[in-house]
Specification:
This protein is of the alpha+beta class. The chain folds into three domains: about 150 residues, Beta-Lactamase, CATH 3.30.450; about 100 residues, 2-Layer Sandwich (Beta-Lactamase); about 55 residues, no CATH class. Strand 1 and strand 2 form a beta hairpin.
């Protein structure tokens, strides 16, 4: 239901603490420059999660800005671990571990309505430091202007954020500086990441390829096959050990052995493609040379007996029958071989 300034005081006395908290938070976060608050009474508010206090409502007096007001409620005492009498004799600086000058600066910004949110490190009575979200607005209470704050324990969230940041940095470094070429494509096949090994492989800089279509890396006569590869990858989610060429900036082709997988979001939807490769160009060249040598005569370059026998096995199947073999002889071949081989050894 909508609310007006005339009934704000009555709302602050709600017994439905969860609804009250939502209202207070929404008013603080949505405060405009013309808002003023005149609560008639502040109800105690305490919210726990797994037995631990995670939220407290607190009022701080601006007329004596660095002391804790007598309106500090049981939720605040439970969270910080102090008795109310102890809190009344403490300064804000006793719980806020930021430098005094920084706390004063932010307090004045809140008073001038230039700042409604702060992330503060607060010290509990047991010495533990907890990070807290503090949403603040000004109110008029018994003729005094005060800061009205709702406080959320954000320690776990901030720890998770730091852990997530470190994990992201680790993965970024792992990708960026890996010896193997790594590329990440968006779901619409734009280049999203391109590591140093890929820069060396293609002769292209990361800055010049990010955001471009992956087809700039594929030889023109292989683009259709590349799209078939991507299509199969989207269906299976993972493809291992596929040989596919990559185009160097100079126009030369490099043969890469790819391991690829799709990256999915929490809903199981594919959002990106991750591919890691091994440059096997030199290995393929060596394999081709060995294959040629094993099937050809070293001196003449003609097919040898091994090739003949392999071909005969390949062709000797029922659908090729009958087979005709034509054999010829060259007079003096032994003499030529003996003389040429002898000369080649000199």
């Amino acid at each position: 239901m909508p609310f007006t300034k005339s009934d704000i005081g009555a709302q602050s006395a709600w017994k439905g603490y969860s609804s009250q908290t939502l209202y207070i938070a929404s008013r603080i976060m949505g405060e405009t420059a013309n808002d003023e608050y005149y609560p008639e009474h502040l109800e105690d508010l305490l919210i726990k999660r797994d037995g631990q206090v995670v939220e407290a409502v607190q009022v701080k007096n601006l007329s004596d800005p660095l002391t804790i007001s007598d309106l500090a409620n049981p939720a605040a005492t439970a969270f910080y671990g102090y008795l109310k009498e102890e809190l009344l004799n403490m300064f804000i600086q006793d719980i806020n571990v930021l430098p005094k000058e920084e706390v004063e600066k932010r307090r004045l910004e809140a008073l001038k309505k230039k700042r409604k949110y702060n992330l503060f490190p607060h010290r509990l009575k047991n010495g533990l430091i907890r990070l807290v979200d503090v949403y603040t607005c000004t109110i008029i209470h018994k003729g005094d202007t005060k800061l009205y704050s709702i406080i959320f324990d954000a320690t776990d969230r901030e720890r998770y954020k730091e852990e997530l940041f470190q994990e992201k940095e680790y993965l970024n470094s792992l990708i960026r500086y890996a010896n193997a070429p790594i590329i990440i494509l968006t779901i619409d096949l734009k280049i999203a990441e391109f590591n140093q090994a890929f820069e060396k492989l293609t002769g292209r800089s990361r800055e010049n390829v990010i955001g471009q279509g992956f087809e700039i890396l594929i030889p023109s006569d292989k683009k259709e096959a590349a799209m078939d590869y991507i299509k199969n990858l989207r269906i299976t989610g993972y493809i291992d050990g596929v040989e596919f060429p990559v185009l160097h900036l100079s126009g030369a082709e490099r043969t890469i052995l790819w391991n690829s997988a799709t990256i999915k979001n929490s809903n199981g939807e594919s959002v990106a493609i991750f591919a890691q490769g091994i440059d096997i160009t030199e290995r393929k060249r060596a394999e081709n040379e060995l294959r040629y040598i094993s099937n050809h005569d070293y001196l003449t370059g003609v097919y040898n007996r091994r090739f003949f026998e392999d071909e005969l096995k390949r062709l000797d199947i029922s659908r090729n029958l009958p087979i005709t073999i034509v054999m010829g002889d060259l007079n003096g071949l032994k003499l030529i071989n003996d003389s040429c081989i002898s000369e080649s050894k000199l």
